[in-house]
């Protein structure tokens, strides 16, 4: 699994930072989390193909999170995107996207499905589950968690000792099914071991809430907005954003392994002030940069 930051600024893009967008890559499929202005160009600069996007998770409809969406959809509709592009967002998103598609004149050859999601697991397959939770922002806003499930790996030594070779039987065992070989039943526990799953949580634009802590519970990575330092806590409250200390408090309360601060304000030329404030509360913190990638 790979996480790539395509945009790490908040309202105003800077020379170094585009507006919010991140890609979580899993087995060749891209999940795009938010789609700030210039997301297409960021894809190009990162050497990544937007045609690999299978799902888009929009946190909310503020411009700095969605202004790149129309351009991205236009390009995808002209570049032979295969299958259905599923866009998830908080309540109200269907109407916004329908309006947006009416507003721009482009040949929409894309198959788009928009789903309004609010709370709990809204998509699940054998490999992973996607969860949403409502946050507290000025408009409807979701936090998201990607849960990679536990998976079984074959211990080839044990498998060979039982006479098993590469093939469909190992496939069955790796998905937790019993198999029979030469009249003998073999259980997955005989020849497999469990690789623990991983969780990556995304919290963008909220006040400090218990919901954010619940969503991030035990996450391996928490990517969290941090617009202000604590001396501007009143402003943070007024605009319903987090301070760096708030983000670190969520990380600490949720017991996450690593915190990455993003959605950073141009107000701070040197982002070290945000990092320092967060690290005083939660030491395993880093600040995101555009094009930064993490293998998870
Ligand atoms: Zn924002
Ligand atoms: Zn916002």
User: Helix count, per DSSP?
Assistant: 11
**If you average the pLDDT, what whole number results?**
95
Ligand species: zinc ion
What's the main sheet like? 7 strands, mixed
CATH superfamily of the largest domain: Ribonuclease Z/Hydroxyacylglutathione hydrolase-like
Using only CA atoms, what is the Rg?
A: 21 Å
Q: Shape from CA axes?
A: globular
> What's the CATH class of the largest domain, please?
Alpha Beta
Strand content bin: 25-35%
Helix content: 25-40%
Task: Work out the count of structural domains.
Answer: 2
* Order of helical and strand elements: EEEHEHHEHEEEEEHHEEHEEHEHHEHEE
Helix and strand content put the structural class at alpha/beta
Low-confidence stretches: none
CATH fold-level topology of the largest domain: Metallo-beta-lactamase, Chain A
CA-CA gap between termini = 5 Å
Main sheet: strand order: 6-5-4-3-2-1-18
The CATH architecture of the largest domain would be 4-Layer Sandwich
Instruction: Please report the total strand number as a whole number.
Output: 18
Structure description:
The protein has 296 residues and is an alpha/beta fold. The chain has 2 domains: 249 residues, Metallo-beta-lactamase, Chain A, CATH 3.60.15.10; 41 residues, no CATH class. The chain contains 11 helices and 18 strands. The relative contact order is 0.14. The site of one zinc ion has 6 residues, from helix 2.
Q: Characteristics of this structure?
A:
single chain, 296 residues, alpha/beta, Metallo-beta-lactamase, Chain A, seven-stranded mixed beta sheet, 18 strands, binds zinc ion
């Amino acid at each position: 699994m790979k996480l790539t930051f395509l945009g790490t600024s908040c309202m105003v893009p800077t020379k170094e930072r585009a507006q919010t967008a991140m890609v979580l890559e899993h087995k060749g499929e891209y999940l795009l989390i938010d789609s700030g202005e210039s997301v297409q160009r960021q894809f190009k600069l990162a050497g990544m193909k937007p045609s690999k996007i299978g799902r888009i998770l929009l946190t909310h409809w503020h411009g700095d999170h969605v202004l790149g969406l129309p351009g991205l959809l236009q390009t995808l509709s002209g570049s032979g995107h295969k299958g259905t592009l599923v866009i998830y967002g908080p309540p109200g998103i269907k109407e916004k996207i329908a309006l947006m598609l009416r507003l721009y004149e482009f040949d929409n050859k894309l198959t788009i499905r928009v789903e309004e999601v609010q709370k709990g697991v809204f998509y699940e397959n054998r490999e992973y589950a996607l969860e949403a939770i409502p946050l507290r922002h000025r408009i409807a806003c979701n936090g998201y968690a990607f849960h990679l499930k536990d998976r079984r790996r074959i211990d080839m030594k044990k498998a060979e000792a039982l006479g098993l070779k590469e093939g469909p039987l190992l496939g069955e065992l790796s998905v937790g099914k019993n198999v029979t070989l030469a009249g003998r039943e073999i259980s997955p526990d005989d020849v497999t071991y469990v690789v623990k799953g991983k969780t990556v949580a995304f919290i963008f634009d909220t006040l400090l809430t218990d919901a954010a802590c619940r969503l991030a519970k035990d996450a391996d990575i928490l990517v969290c907005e941090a617009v202000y330092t604590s001396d501007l806590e009143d402003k943070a409250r007024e605009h319903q954003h987090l301070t760096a200390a708030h983000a670190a408090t969520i990380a600490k309360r949720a017991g996450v392994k690593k915190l990455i601060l993003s959605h950073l304000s141009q107000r701070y030329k040197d982002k070290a002030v945000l990092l320092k404030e967060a690290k005083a509360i939660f030491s395993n913190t880093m600040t995101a940069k555009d094009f930064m990638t993490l293998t998870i």
